[in-house]
Amino acid sequence: RGGINPYLFQMASVREQVSWVTEDPDDATRKAKTLAAAAVNRVNYHQSLATREVAVHPDVLVVGGGIAGMQASLDIASAGHKVYLVERQPTIGGHMLQFDKTFPTLDCAACIGTPKMVSVGQDPNIELMTYHEVDEVSGFVGNYKVNVRKKKRYVDVNKCTGCGECAAACVVTNVIQIPERPPLPMMEPEEESALEATLSSHGNQPRDLIAMLIDINDELGYLPRPVLTNLAYRLDIPLSHAFRVATFYSQFRFEPIGKHQIMVCQGTACHVLGGKRILQTVSRKLGIEPGQTTSDLEFSLDRVACFGACALAPVVVVDEKVYGGMSPAKVEALIDDLVARNENHEEGIVEEIHELKPESYAEELR
Ligand code: SF4
Ligand code: FES
Fold this sequence. Notes:
CATH topology of the largest domain: Glutaredoxin
Number of helices: 14
Structural class: alpha/beta
Number of domains: 4
Helix content: 25-40%
Bound molecules: iron/sulfur cluster, FE2/S2 (inorganic) cluster
Strand order of the largest sheet: 9-8-10-11
């Protein structure tokens, strides 16, 4: 209002830096004087600044094609802006796609990431620059200049159909020595008959791998490693492939199942109400981790993404009976009950959980 350049301004913050933080009145006065003197001194260095308008280039560069980069590109592209998405690897997707499951819903990472990869590839507003790297950035907000280096590919990407025939002719691959396959592990008689039964019913077809894994898991209660190794050999597929398929589905087990199967929900509703502590309590009490069975084959412990009973959260399922409103104390009592029943050779399931103090988990949390 006074016509002075608005950037000729200084401030000493006596309230935040003195009144609120300095208890001794004399110290506070000294400090306030020092801050005020410093502010006055800074005025010596003031320069008038001029305001000017600069055209802003609306195109956007996103560096990194992981889940965050893909989502940012899609959001910006849907707002109508041109996006250059630079990724130094040959493909977008990032580290998230290498995970099995994602927190908190334990959804499969590929199920979330793959549709986004497709959307990025098909969006006309996104120019995908895989196998490129940002070398230099200069300029200022709205007017950046960026040097992006395209890495050597040794193939014409516009002509390559991804047929893979070059792999057969690759001199690097052809000099790799493949170690001899170790001898196949011995199987127990019941394991051998389960394997032979499923192989003969599915005709040694690798495409039926999942069906065969289901058969073996149903027959033996789990997938013993010797059976998986022999199955992979008989189907002429890498053992890693058999494991990759088997470990993707939580229904498959790799250890024998216990007499009592305890499943603790780790879905969102159960998680926010203490599902993790309940899982830790069961794990500590039984001395096993999720996916394991106690050495006496009495208890197996598993985590589950959601039982569809979120209104009862936190939920624990024991031998197919659902227990809602659980707490660490209640789940301990439940296991004690099961152990007592085993010792008394009682069959069946625990219908009631003993009334406990504190009565509710909310009270316990308080
Ligand atoms: S052989 Fe097939 S995969 Fe290899 S570069 Fe040629 S078209 Fe692409
Ligand atoms: S989140 Fe646990 S039952 Fe749904």
